[in-house]
Design brief:
By secondary structure, the chain is mainly β. The protein has no helices and 20 strands. 0% of the residues lie in helices and 50% in strands.
Length: 272
């Protein structure tokens, strides 16, 4: 199967200074990222407030939300809608017991992360077991064939993750390209620290994960069926990629790969 590349934004958990995840920092967050920011107050009894603005220092359009507030530190969930290259400003205001205030502003520029995943798997795949043949009780001259399951396997490998942060997720889907059979599938993680919920695979570390679709072709064929009637192409799609702190895939659309599932196209038995 052709090698596919799935691009994701990096995941970052950072203070104003460091904790770098790939090339993204608190002053250069990726869209969707959750970052941590803090100050050292001038007085232990001060009240502290935070805001985020854009461009003119007063516009709060699509900046993000302050999701966790602990007085002298906050977490900002930068919006998915912010654009790479745009400037935002993190404001903090400290007011002491006398009512005196001070204000500091941190310029922040939205930056695309180099975090990406690679997807690999086989181009061709056989069925898991032998054909199941049976006789039609109502007409003993009719032989029915069912081909059963084929296990299609893919591996996703992350690149650009640092040891200071872990985890990513994506959705895996499958399509049979208008194949007219009776098809069903089961998605499972077979290697790596991942889990499946519906179509979503969540990985808890920065290591590769291998998943499979066990595809069941329950279609009944007879000796009158086309020789290649059991053959089909399964198209697997990876989409909705997201790092574990909310950074979205910075690619466009979905990422797909084809696996051809087939048996030898054996003819019917002839006689003389």
């Amino acid at each position: 199967m052709k090698k596919l590349i799935l691009l994701f934004f990096a995941v970052v958990t950072t203070a104003m200074s460091a904790n770098v995840f790939a090339q993204s920092t608190g002053t250069k967050p990726a869209p969707g990222a959750t970052q941590t920011y803090f100050i050292t107050p001038g007085s232990e009894t001060s009240s502290i407030s935070w805001t985020i603005t854009k461009a003119t220092l007063t516009d709060t359009t699509d900046a993000g939300s302050i999701s966790v507030i602990q007085s002298d530190s906050i977490s900002i969930a930068w919006a998915d809608t912010v654009s790479v290259g745009d400037w935002y400003y993190v404001h903090v205001t400290e007011e002491d017991a006398l009512g005196c205030t001070n204000n500091k502003i941190l310029p922040v520029q939205i930056t695309q992360s180099p975090f990406f995943l690679t997807l690999s798997g086989a181009t061709d795949q056989c069925y898991d077991g032998a054909v199941t043949a049976s006789i039609d009780i109502s007409d003993p001259s009719v032989i029915t064939y069912v081909h059963g399951t084929a296990t299609i396997q893919f591996t996703v490998s992350p690149t650009g993750l640092s040891d200071s942060y872990s985890g990513y997720s994506f959705d895996a889907g499958i399509d049979y390209n208008s194949y007219g059979g009776t098809m069903s599938e089961t998605l499972a993680v077979t290697s790596g620290n991942g889990s499946v919920s519906g179509t979503k695979i969540t990985v808890t570390d920065n290591n590769p994960v291998t998943f499979t679709f066990e595809v069941n072709n329950a279609t009944e064929f007879t000796n009158g069926s086309a020789l290649d009637a059991q053959d089909y192409t399964a198209t697997v799609t990876i989409l909705n990629g997201e790092a574990s702190n909310g950074v979205d895939d910075n690619g466009t659309g979905g990422y797909t790969g084809d696996t051809n599932v087939a048996r030898p196209n054996t003819s019917g038995i002839g006689t003389n």
